[in-house]
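note to self: the first set is below, dont mix up w the second
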Amino acid sequence: LSVIGKMDNKIVTELEERLPEIARGIIQNNDRLPDEYRQRFYHNPDSVDEHEPNWHQWGIITHSRKFREMYDGEVSGYLKSWELEQRVGEYLQREIDGVPKSELIRVSMPLHDLGKFRKGLKEKDGKTKFDFDNHEKISQEIILSQEFREMLRDYGLSNPQIEYVAKCAGNHYELGFVRDRAKKSDLGYTIRFVESPNFSEAVKEQLSRFDGFEVEVGLLFLADSLAKTDVIIPAESDAQIE
């Protein structure tokens, strides 16, 4: 057994427990926020008001824990219903330095939104709002930093494994950008768009940049979406959602 194979759950649990400490370390050095905002964020890093309440029910730290919970508890049901569970399971057994991707992808989950602790401010519609743009790539950069690499090496991860974890964090929202294409279409951001050929084309185009990494992009986006709120509407049409 690999080191991480013996410690997988322990690593994820410890990273989740350390998130408030990790968050404050990042916030403390965030020069994108004025001091008043930075101090408030530092003392309340998991406040939903410091996140995006229009899209998230919880603060960043709780959302990151929910991400892993949804992946462990809900994603398999979707894969079963789509008849993808076996194929995805076999794919995730591929190893990086002797450790299956199925273990390494879970390590990325407490870390996937670290970039949000480096948020800035922007003016929109006459109001000052938080700027989380590009937070995925910032998360990837943080994980690949020397300090973070050393921390993850202490948990037994090799450099290729750390780079995989960082890549997962850096690309967890890629399918979300399909929404932008939906909004610009005649159908808008609706179930009708998802059922149209435009949706399939948009997804294929987005995934074409991730040759060999498409499964991770899909799994991470699904778990991240499920972790935004506990409100689930079993709707099959836009009218039912309304």
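second set (the one i keep forgetting abt)
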Amino acid sequence: MRALPVALGLVALLAALPTAAADPVAVTVDLHLISVGNYDTAKGTYTLDFYLHMRWDPQQAPANFTPEQFEFMNGRAASRELLSDETGPAGRDVWYRIQANLYNSPAFADYPFDAQRLTITLEDTINQADTLVFVPGSTTLDADARVAGWRQNNLTALATVKEYPFGESYSRLTYTLELRREPVSSALRTFLPPVAFMLVASFSFFFDRSQASNRLALGTGMLITAVGFHISQTVSLPPLGALTLFDKVMISAYSFIASTILVTTVLVFGEQMKLPQRIAELVNRRGAILAIALPVVVFLALHYL
């Protein structure tokens, strides 16, 4: 009879011990991107059309888990079509065809050689990371998925845990498609004109100081043309808080053209003061050296300081 109270005490003690938490259910997600549309570089908005396949073990899933309760954290689905929902020995498989209107913050620091990232970010709306985790599966990019004017890298997937300030954390799955501008065409379109402007402005150093009006017309004409070109190339970009690579190149070009105008102005004052011809030639030569060195110094200062 004494064994009965002892047994009851052991049962109560075991019941009081904390039970081990169950492992979160792993939901494997496959994604096949079909097309990219309506990409607005300035706003960072785009539309992605893709197939989404989710599979998991329904025996381990939380009671309140349903496949359609995921959401996009960087936009909204314009349409979500359920293609199939089957349960077999390997688990439950659900296929969707989704078209989503998404956005991401564009980065223009290296414009015109900038890289933009188009992302798809998924989270479950109910179950936190301790009960459900997303696992990246097959991630493929359709051969016909093209963005005009851009080179695209492979589609990649990354699973993380998002911690929120209100004490909740959710499993997050992020797909990233990196786009880069065509380097050759971008360089020719944006950097060849500034080089041409500086080259034309440099012709003023071959003019005699008696042709100051021609030298000034050449320099001021190139400066106005350079400013107009700069504005035309950046009008499609949003207001930025920092200079882009293209801005730094154009400011360097401005410094060269301004140097040619400054040297011409000094020569005009020298002629009015009746300075010797050899002094004028010296000023012209030293001014040419200054005009060549100044853009390099300006660009390095803007880029590294």
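remember for set 2: The first strand starts at residue 25 and ends at 40.
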